[in-house]
Design goal:
Helix content is 32%, strand content 18%. The strands form five sheets. It has a five-stranded mixed β-sheet. Strands 7-9-8-10-11 form a five-stranded mixed β-sheet, covered by helices on one side. Helix 6 crosses helix 7.
Length: 439
């Protein structure tokens, strides 16, 4: 009888411990990950400030490896935080959702903020601690508040800066600014001066300005409604997402995944003039190429490996080249970059295949000017070196002198342009199941 009583007491005590653990720490087998379908997509995204979504496929081994880690990470966010959600999309059954967000590899991790997908997907370490730190960082405000206007002179001049001057943080104008800054945190640095210290910048009311990189006294004022979120977002996006972007080792994978060739200027980090000239030329002559080519600048003291493959070094900076993700093509003379039409023709030669063709066969033949008194047949005869109607010589063949006189066509010696270096920054096949090779 005593043994039975002891067993009952032991069972009750064990049950009490499990109950206490569940109350204090939650059930470790529970998950807060929300399955997202086309039917609940808008509701989940629009009713939470942050939604971290795992796009996966059941048959993908990388998806299976990530699943328990992602599930465990979802439990690290305190239940009291109601505006952060971990979500998951089964791309096999929810093809419409997958297509909507352009999923091309499994698993893909994307962050949604206030219903808007963030441009940069998560590409960091895939661990519970890394996911936890990432979400905590995303929850922090990205707006730097200054206590003195002179502090604005110390902001990073190499970056694109949006600066707001507001009377109060409780105003609808500030709330709108706060939302736009949060949505574009990956594209611009945001600073704010509030209250009495901003008074001289608010002569006609609250004010927002854009400060371009590497400039002085060239601030651009926002003239639209400060409470119109869509209008302010459009203006800020235009200013914060430049036509010419900087490639780094951190964003290289993201840029290569866009699948567009690079027109890339390797420069010395202290050479602001060549960067400014390149921006001006691209804006003036190559705006029509947006969507066909990515215009980039790169710190040539860091990206020395591509320079080496082009036969260049840091002593040769600045260097201009195209990386087509198959080969790299060097712009022959950087001093000619300013000549109207030169850079435009360089891009056109990429699209036509001329750059690749000339690497293999030498310069394309050019048509000589019409000689007075000669008809087209006579000129053709001269070009062919024989009777009219003969086939013209292959431009890749050069005459060589035979032993004993005469000449014979020289065997072609194809050359190969340097292989692409930036394609190596593309998504790793050891980490993703790629649906198709977009490069």
């Amino acid at each position: 009888m005593m043994d039975a009583a002891r067993r009952l007491m032991s069972f009750q005590f064990t049950f009490f411990l499990f109950y206490l653990q569940a109350v204090l720490f939650g059930n470790p087998t529970d998950t807060r990950t929300v399955p997202i379908t086309i039917s609940n997509l808008e509701d989940v995204l629009n009713h939470n400030e942050l939604v971290f979504v795992n796009f996966y496929a059941d048959w993908c081994r990388f998806s299976k490896m990530l699943e328990p880690v992602f599930e465990e990470a979802s439990n690290t966010v305190p239940a009291a935080i109601q505006n952060v959600v971990f979500g998951k999309v089964n791309c096999d059954s929810e093809t419409e959702v997958a297509q909507k967000f352009g999923i091309s590899k499994y698993p893909t991790l994307k962050l949604f903020r206030n219903g808007r997908v963030q441009k940069r997907e998560y590409r960091g370490q895939r661990s519970v601690e890394a996911f936890k730190e990432y979400i905590e960082e995303q929850m922090k405000s990205n707006i730097r508040e200054v206590n003195d206007l002179r502090e604005l002179n110390d902001i990073d001049g190499k970056k694109r800066n949006i600066i707001g001057y507001f009377n109060s943080k409780e105003s609808p104008e500030y709330k709108t600014f706060q939302q736009v800054a949060s949505n574009l945190r990956d594209d611009c640095d945001f600073s704010v001066a509030v209250g009495e210290i901003s008074k001289k910048e608010r002569i006609s009311g609250d004010n927002i300005i854009f400060r371009p990189p590497r400039t002085k006294d060239q601030d651009m004022v926002y003239l639209g409604s400060l409470v119109n979120k869509d209008l302010l977002t459009a203006w800020t996006t235009d200013k914060c997402v430049p036509l010419v972007r900087e490639i780094t080792f951190e964003n290289g994978e993201e840029l290569t995944e866009e699948g567009l060739p690079f027109l890339i200027l390797f420069h010395n980090p202290d050479d602001a003039n060549i960067v400014q000239k390149f921006n001006q030329i691209v804006s003036r002559e190559l705006l029509h190429e947006k969507g066909n080519i990515n215009f980039l600048i790169a710190d040539g003291t860091k990206f020395t490996h591509p320079l080496h493959h082009l036969g260049k070094s840091t002593k040769d900076l600045p260097v201009l080249a195209i990386d087509s993700f198959r080969h790299m093509y060097l712009f022959p003379d950087i001093s000619q970059m300013n000549v109207p039409g030169k850079l435009k023709q360089f891009c056109a030669d990429l699209h036509s295949g001329k750059l690749h063709r000339e690497f293999h066969h030498g310069p394309d033949p050019t048509t000589p000017p019409q000689i007075a008194g000669q008809d087209q047949q006579q000129q053709q005869q001269q070009l062919s070196g024989g009777q009219a109607g003969s086939l013209p010589k292959d431009p890749g063949q050069q005459p060589t002198v035979k032993k004993g006189g005469g000449s014979a066509p020289q065997e072609k010696r194809p050359t190969t342009p340097p292989e692409s270096q930036f394609v190596k920054l593309a998504p790793s096949k050891n980490r993703y199941t790629l649906l198709k090779d977009e490069l």
